[in-house]
Design a protein that fits this description.
Length: about 525
């Protein structure tokens, strides 16, 4: 409960006492026990009614408090000075008693000093012997009256304080419970949460935030760590300025940055925090790592592309090959006559038909599941076959082949032709990426579960913005490429339970790492 509300309740108690004393005074005057002009009676009724109206309208409690004390004190002074009897001086003592309801030592001390000075002034002003009408009766009556008022006041104040203490305790318990639940929710939430002040400094973070971004709570408090990718810094600053203007952002997708500099896809919600008066105190940020969702979307899109390419291949390959077979047969017949004036052209036509047939063969892989004829394969032998296959081309283009192969024999479970096709595609791309006098490095190693084969070249490399398109269908940087080799290689390795990782730097070279599960057989007894 607010202090002004408590003062208002105590004002009601003081007013009730004043009201009862006023009725008592009016009754004494009506029955001629005391003799005052009726204008005093009218004035007292008017003042009591005015103060009652102010209490009803809930005028400022401090103002009503001062008005009550001043009014009561003034009335006592007027009645005492105007009368030949000083028994109204008991009214000052009653005022001091009733003022204790405010529980203010400063107010009691100040009022006591004022009343003592007022009594001294009144006695000096009247200059007569102090006597009382009905002294014994008055003393007994006033003593009983003060005792009753003291008991009532004690009961009222005690009840009021017990009530207020209970309310305050209940509120404190509710607040403590709500604060405890809120703190538990904040600390154990799965989403990263952070609270920023209006200067973009971190006030508080939860455990999920520390785990997601890599910053500890001690490192963050009072600081503004870099939480967004550098290219998004300006957009983040603009968002913060809009937050200060009262805007909110819900489930906004952006790229954030961890302490180690790694970038990840994040979904964030930002909103201002207001107090009970509507003033903005801080800004809350709730973020979630959606990298896995983005990866699922990418894989789904890739799967849809493969499916679409397969459907196209199934529908088109048959229709193309039949007429191409006929054309190829007639061109071969025409090409048998070296004296023909069209011999040069038929040679070109034949080579282009063979190229079309190669494209169709690669394209056809997408239209059907990979062959299931899998066996235990010696990966080291396959690599040696591939090296022997490209030996002439490497010598012709003056490309040095560096081998760092595992001394142990590595066995995998798969289809020989398909695995060889993967190596042929990758090594062929590496050779074509090097003009001359380059180097191709072939490294093989393994752990307990997987074999790792890295094929690195010193060619021109792939621009950073094009790396994501390497495994897309029909995408190629070569003038004579089909754009299907890497896509088919990726599909073959995935079908064998492995992965392909590509790393490339422009004008430096490209490195492709194949990760293929090892095949372990129990030794014969």
């Amino acid at each position: 409960m607010q202090p002004l509300t408590i003062i208002h309740k105590r004002n009601l108690f003081i007013y009730c006492s004043l009201f009862l004393c006023s009725i008592f005074f009016v009754a004494l005057n009506l029955f001629d026990i005391v003799h005052y002009s009726h204008c005093y009676t009218l004035l007292m009724i008017t003042v009591v009614a005015l103060i009652g109206l102010l209490l009803y309208k809930k005028v400022h409690a401090r103002f009503v408090q001062v008005l009550l004390i001043v009014t009561w004190n003034t009335v006592l002074i007027i009645l005492t000075i105007d009368s030949e009897q000083l028994w109204f001086l008991f009214g000052f003592l009653y005022l001091l008693l009733i003022i204790n309801a405010y529980q203010s030592y400063r107010l009691n001390t100040t009022l006591t000093i004022i009343i003592v000075l007022e009594i001294a002034f009144i006695v000096a002003l009247k200059k007569f012997d102090i006597y009382l009408v009905y002294p014994v009766q008055s003393l007994i009556f006033f003593t009983v009256f003060l005792c009753i008022v003291g008991i009532l006041q004690t009961i009222y104040v005690r009840k009021l304080w017990l009530y207020e203490e209970k309310r305050n305790m209940d509120k404190q318990m509710k607040f403590s419970s709500a604060e405890a639940y809120l703190k538990l929710f904040f600390n154990h939430a799965e989403d990263a949460m952070a609270v920023f002040d209006l200067n973009n400094k971190i006030i508080e973070v939860n455990a999920a935030f520390e785990k997601m971004y890599g910053w500890t709570r001690e490192e963050c408090l009072g600081q503004s760590p870099q939480l967004v990718a550098p290219e998004n810094a300006e957009a983040a600053q603009n968002r913060f300025l809009k937050l200060l203007q009262g805007e909110r952002f819900h489930l906004l997708e952006t790229k954030d940055m961890r302490k180690d500099g790694s970038i990840f896809d994040a979904q964030i919600s930002l909103s201002p925090i207001y107090n009970s008066d509507g003033d903005m105190l801080a800004v809350s940020v709730i973020s979630r790592d959606i990298s896995y969702l983005k990866e699922n979307e990418r894989l789904t899109l890739q799967s849809e592309k493969l499916k679409l390419a397969g459907e196209i291949a199934a529908g088109v390959t048959h229709e193309i090959r039949n007429p191409m077979t006929v054309i190829s047969g007639f061109v071969q017949m025409m090409n048998e006559d070296p004296q023909s004036p069209y011999h040069t052209y038929t040679n070109i036509i034949q080579s282009e038909i063979e190229r079309i047939d190669l494209i169709i063969s690669e394209f056809l892989v997408l239209s059907k599941p990979l062959a299931e004829q899998k066996n235990r394969l010696n990966l080291s032998e396959i690599i040696q076959d591939i090296i022997l296959f490209f030996e002439f081309q490497l010598e012709q283009r003056q490309i040095q082949l560096i081998q760092q192969l595992s001394e142990e024999t590595l066995f995998i479970y798969g289809n020989t032709n398909q695995i060889k096709q993967v190596f042929i595609n990758i090594v062929k791309n590496a050779i074509e990426a090097i003009d001359q006098n380059g180097t191709i490095t072939l490294i093989s190693c393994h752990d307990h579960h997987f074999a790792y084969i890295e094929i690195a070249d010193t060619g021109e490399g792939i621009p950073h913005h094009l790396i994501d398109y390497v495994f897309e269908p029909f995408y190629t940087t070569k003038t004579t490429g089909t754009g299907l080799g890497m896509m088919i290689s990726n599909k073959i390795i995935c079908e064998h339970g492995g992965t392909i990782h590509l790393h490339s730097e422009e004008h430096v070279g490209t490195a492709i790492t194949l990760k293929i599960p090892l095949h372990h057989l129990k030794k014969d007894a």
